[in-house]
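Our consortium's second objective concerns turning raw sequence data into structural hypotheses that experimental partners can test. To show how far this objective has progressed, the report includes one record in full. It was chosen at random from the queue rather than selected for favorable results. The single chain below, 1478 residues long, was entered without modification.
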Amino acid sequence: MYFPVGWPKAVNLALPGESAVINYICCDAVKILVAAIADDFLGIWYANPLIPISFYRRSAQSVIDLGVNKVIIWKPDSRQLAILTSAGVLLLYQIDFDANENGVLTQTDPPSLNLKRDSAELFIKENIPRLSLKELRNIKFSSTVSTVCCVSLSEMLIATKDCHLIRIEWSDLDASSDGNIEEPISSINLRNIPFFVNSNFNQKNLPAIGMNSYVSTLEYSPFLGGCPAVFNDNRAGFIIASHLRFEAQNMHGLWVQGVEDATVCSVNHKFRLLAFGRCNSDVAVYGIEDLNGGLEYSHKLSLSSSIIPGLLGAVNELKWSPDGCVLVVAWENGGFSLWSTFGTLLMSSFTWDFGLNIDVVRQNPLQINRLEWSTEGYQLFMTCKYELSANKEPNDDINTNVFQLSFVKSTLSLNPCMASQPHILLQGDDTIYLNQGGNLEKIYFGSKFTFPNNSHEKIDNKANSENMEIKKSIDISNILAESKYWCILQLPLTYAATNWPIRYSAIDPQGLHIAVAGRTGLAHYSMITKRWKLFGNETQEKDFVVSGGLIWWNGFIVLGCYSLLDRTDEIRCYPEEYKLDNQFGNKIQVRAPVISLNMFNDQLIVLTADGFITLFALKKINSYTLNVEVAYDLDVKGMCVHPACIVSLTVTNLHSDVTKSVSVGKTDDTAQTIIVNVCGRIMMIQRDFRTNVINSMMASCLASCVECFWLSNGDDKSPMRDCLWLYSGAHGMRVWLPILPPPTEQIRDGPHRLHTFMSKRIMLTFPLKLYPLVILFDNVIVLGIENETTLYTNESQSHFSLPFCLLERKSQVYLHKILRQLIKRNLGYSAWEIAKSCRSLPYFPHSLELLLHEVLEDEATSKEPIPDALLPSILDFIREFPVYLQTIVQCARKTEIALWPYLFAKAGKPKDLFQQCLQSEELDTAASYLIILQNMEPSHVSKNHATQLLDIALQNGKWELAKDLIRFLKAIDPNEIDSPRSSLIVNLKIAPQSQAQSQVNQNPEVFNMILGPIGRERSFSTTVISNLPKEKREKIGNLQTAAGSVTSTSGNIISNDSGVLSSNSNTVGQIVMRRKNERSNSTKERKETFCIESILQRHARTLLQQYKLIELGYMSAYLDFHLVAWLFQEADHAAKLDDYVTTLICLHEQLKLSIPFSQTTSEEAHLTTNYDYNQFQTQFLLDNRQNYQRASSHTSESGYFSLALMDTPTSNSNRQPKMSSIKHSETLNYVSSSSQAAVHTDFVNSRSNSQFTLDNSGYRGLCSPRNDVPAISLGLDCLDCTDHSRILPEKLSIKIRYLLQLFIEANCIDYALVLSILLQDAASIGRIINGVIRSECLDTCICIENALKQLTQWSFERECLYRPFMIILQPQIYLLNQYILSSAKSGTNSNLVRMSSISDTCQEDVEENVDLNNLIPSSRNSIVNSNWTKDGYPSEINRFNRQASLDSTNNANIQNNNVKKNSKEYLSPNQNKGCAVM
């Protein structure tokens, strides 16, 4: 309710320019003037700003004769004050107000024009009065005065050390001329009045007051009708006077039971509570029984050992706040704390951060002697123990023992009608703190949340429902976040200058408008425009004082006030849309001052000081006019001692019996019940259905010790509607909710109703970890605030040496608390209905987990037998929801292992739950069960289940889960596969620590799992050893041979050493056993790794056969699967394709691409259908026989090829030729006409720049037809080649190109061709065909040619998007055809060489009847070496070198027959098994 903010400020209340220890601080009745006394002086200060007004210093002789100043009290009218000295003498002082003066402050501007104040805000408008202070006289009594207090406006009560109570008037003190009071109004000897031990008044005067006992502390309360007192022997009592005259015959006393060590006491007038501080550091709080007026124990305030481990000492001071909402307690050894009315700890200074050098137990910097609340409780003055140091400056503020701590408080403290608002609103003396959560970090991602059981729900308006879901998700994420972000609104200076401090504040339900009321007037703020609205006429602002509270209703500010101009009590309503002016306001005159008000729908309930409750019906006529009618009046004077004891009230449709309201036919908009909080007791006044009138005589008490309450009046049919929520401080939260009848129970009238004897409502109690300020019923969330501190400096002389206080919003889910209480009381149907209404919340599974965890902890750790365990019922309840398996495992993993047997004995075996997860496809939940199995079952069980889950995870594409499972499997120690688990036998809470350290697992995979990959067993490169050049393969083989020789040598050394040490047989035996264990461990590890690799390879083979290449890439990326090495093994098996057409169509389906058939127009369809594939092929072959022209490709390729092809090592030569640079003029042009060239140029430019080179010089010319081929022969004028480039998205294209690179490196030619066609990458296809030809694998060439021809023919059968690209590939297909024919004619088919990579391929001769001069393009004749002739070939030593282009000029001339003659020397026995690319 109250929360400190900022730094505690050190204030110097001594005389100006001096330094003194302040003994006591006291504020006047209205908390505007502050009186501070030291040993010899008295000072009067103004509260805001804190400036001195008047001082009076006593003479030294007066101090010697009468004693030092000890206690000070104010007369209620602030005209006089009295000081009690240490000698028991009263000093009376008079305060005079000088009305002729302008005030204490004289505000004058300097003569300089630049320094003059132009704005009115720079002037202090508050007129601080000029006061004069003079001593009237000192009064001595016949006995020494021990304490003094005020009992009325004109009387005071004095306690003397002879155990007397003296009632005397202030005027009698003023009239005594000699300073001696001979005949007071009344003098009561406490030894003559009866004291009772208990509230039954049957044990009198036991024990009696001792002869040396007297009252040391005394405080009077008119609402209690007596005075709590603490005697000097530390006994606590309550002196009751049935009449204000305090006559002995009308007085008696009560001893406080159980309090024999009291030190101080304090009274809460509003809640009628008595607080007694004790020597054992506790505070005992008692209430007054309404039946006989006796004392009733309420609660105890005690700090737990978790907050402060040491002794606090006795309570030396405690003080209730002015509104009675909090109690501040200070201890003798230092420190203070703040408690709510009924015992909730709000703040403790022992949790503050004072730095590392300060021990808050032994050397607490806050050694507090006295406490005093300032105006409205916004500041707390603390006087501390202090010793003046000689090296300190006397005028330094730090050189003081007074600190002032600022507070903000909830608006519920003075305006309880704000309990219905969903926003946290705090108010300071001149600031407003608002936390709506709009800028907080969101915890739950996304804008939608779907619970598994919500699939059957239908949504009428999809757009509106999405907006509602987004708004709801934002609210949920905001309320769950804990944040220190606050919107702080500073009160306008023009309003705060004369109306400080803020007394009331209110916010509308939407959180868009805030209204505040100070000493006079009103102001409101708009969160939309970020501007304040004030009264334009300042006279109207000063004419009324707000009382009773503020509330928003339909754009109006409704408030109770007292008109200073008319001297009447009123209810006013001001519209928000218009300016603040009385001409737009609505006035309702009432007969007494307004104490409290509240709203329910369109009904306003008002409590006035005459003890009447009035209900008004409001109706809005227009934007600034209201129609108000009085519904009824209700007299409640008989329910309370005084109307001021009514803390809050409201009107609602809530009723104790739901069936009655339904039978009468009342709607939800009708106010049927009035709920009143009287001194912490909740009274419900119901309507008499016989007379249809609300009668106060029908009031019933629902609960006691209640600080505040909320009503959940929801419009929906939620089972938690019409609930009453009560917060009782240390007693926790209570909810009074209706019991929902089963569906078979129908509500009937009269005698036909079933089970009328059963309760219709139930009161549930559960604890909370924070003080509730807002309850969000739809989200089952409680919002509160906690204090945090931070230290900025450790310098003791700094103003910032004390911690800085911050505010942090907290939240707590209470759903599991209610469900547990209902299930415990066998109200499972109500629990089910409540849980079903909350199942759409994203934290609903977490609530079920908390429910299970709390019950498990309580029952599993209980030392007493549990005859009726609640855990089975909780498990049966959770089993009704789809999150049952997840809840069980999450709860188990957050619980100690020793409690697992108790849980799974009721929930089921972990193996069975694991199988259920697999059946319901909850793979992540099943993975969580592996930890349970690993600790409860042998390792081989968890290993088998993990392997099973890994297989399923791979099938479902759960790569992250599969990665974790692989790490889990590798982390299992092979030596523990068959070892049983014994960890469950030992309770981890009481198990002794092992004396010997367990053996560390030396498996490197375990270290990799914990510390990251330290080393890898194999390279992550996509290059395989079989593809390396011969020199590198031989070098690697030599290294392996050398490593083997070193190993054998070291083995000999070890054997020799063993022979030397053969005399020690034990050592030899240990070495032998160690070797066997190491060999067995390594064998087991290899088996485990082989098992995992087998699973991965099997799944990769499945993906490849199903054409799921993207998933195969994800698998390789996530699981560190060496895809290239595996594809190299599967090149002739799973990676072998028989039908390119089917593969291409399946890839379109898997990649979710459009079908490869274009939607053409009628004219285009007519042209393409009349032109079939056979005609095109015939025309193409005819044109190529007429002329050959060399050209290079300038089409797209993957960016991965450039680096791979620029520098390729060879096996037979140290020279590594480079590929020649690409010239912009070298493009693949099939046409010479402008129309055909334009079409093809668009296609070429749409692809990436790359180079397609036929490295076999004998077939370079075969790739290009003549330039004068007609356009119709290629069909390029029928289809646009650039349309297909937009089929593949950019990100997908990058993935496909990466996969293409992997397939090429693994020599998977079929998939490489299909992916190149999918990408329309002519350069890649050219390289693949070039590599195939150079590898001289005739079977592969024939298969590729047939597949490409089949694909081309398929593209001509329908309007296919790949037809233009297949037309462009005809030179490559023709090249393959010519190579196959030439190979058949030359008769060298049996001598073709299969090479492992492009770097090892060789050049083959061409047909003898081909004119090589025609193969050389005319554009490059000038570049070719003159040694090249028809029979010219490179030298024999370089015949296996990869030739990048015709620019290579280092080739020697060699005869064609020499090549044919020596070609047999390079034959390979594996020539017919396939070919290698790259």
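The partners drew two points from this record. The mean pLDDT is 75. DSSP finds 35 helices and 56 strands in the chain. Both points have been shared with the crystallography group to help prioritize constructs.
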